[in-house]
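Protocol step 4 of 5: obtain the predicted structure for the target chain.
Materials: sequence only (see below). No template structures provided, no constraints applied. The aim of this step is simply to have a reference model before the mutagenesis design in step 5. Sequence pasted as it appears in the construct record:
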Amino acid sequence: MRAIVVEQYGVLPSVQEVPSPEVQPGGVVVKVEATGLCRSDWHGWQGHDSDIVLPHVPGHELAGTIAAVGEGVEGWAVGDRVTSPFICACGTCEQCAAGNQQVCPNQLQPGFNYWGSFAEYVALPFAQVNLVRLPDDLDFDTAAGLGCRFATSYRAVRQVGRVVAGESVVIFGCGGIGLSAVMIAAALGAKVVAVDTNPAALALAAKYGAVEVVTAGPEAVARIRESTGGGAHVTMDALGSNEIVQDALRSLRPRGRHLQVGLLPDGVQVDVSGLIWQELEWLGSHGMAAHHYPEMLALVASGELKPAELVTRTISLAEVPAALEELNLGTPAGVTVIRPGATASLGSTRPD
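Step 4 output (structure tokens):
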């Protein structure tokens, strides 16, 4: 099969012919129809993830059809349209038994623990616990973004952040996760403020429901506090940086809640005394278990959530190295989806 192969951290990968994955007991092999390009993939390419062993195939947001079914997998067949959380939980540990597959200590993640979905085929372990059946009317490009960014934002905003109608929610970073969070929080009836350095990303945030957009910079916190009447109920770092964390915490009102979703490879400094005297909550959120997908998919089917609008570009495997390199300069507006089966450059950008 054709796949993107990283041979050195920080050095552009290439498209290579590599062996296709073999189906394992309890797992499936999926023919990848679409896979998202996420900032987490950039972190892995840069060497920020200790689980990665080179040479490596990235990719963890995927949708496709089952190509092979392993021994012991019931209720699934070749040809079924599926997606999966990027966290493939074991299904048997204490956390999985409690329904918390997103923090399974035995989890495996395609594109990190083993070769991922920037390829024509990918293996998924523990299929009985992790496969999600796709509605026939949900296209693969849209479905690919659900497994990490949209599902992660859905659980962070709705379940972990406990956002309700009327609250002020500030989203820092308007890449795929941030724009998903804007759309979801707005659908819940929150007053959403979006913060980014990229005017195009802020324009999309306004389109997806932000009532105000703020250019990141020295004046951002003061503007946020003024527009939210003394501070936000909820802030979310959807990118991952020490500077964003500080601005997010300063933007909260007393007893506010901060959601940390963006990875922080360089660490972060937190004023713990400020957390104490204002009774602030620091909430980490990591993915979403497969059994929560039906609720989210029902809202997509009803039209309340429109993740298809987040996909702004589709590319082929040949275009992936350049797209990864673009992430060195920042996160492009919207979601980029890779179609591994395409043999030529697509260069497709959806109109706003």
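Step 4 remarks: The chain has a mean pLDDT of 94. The domain at 2-148+288-349 is CATH 3.90.180.10 (Quinone Oxidoreductase; Chain A, domain 1).
Proceed to step 5.
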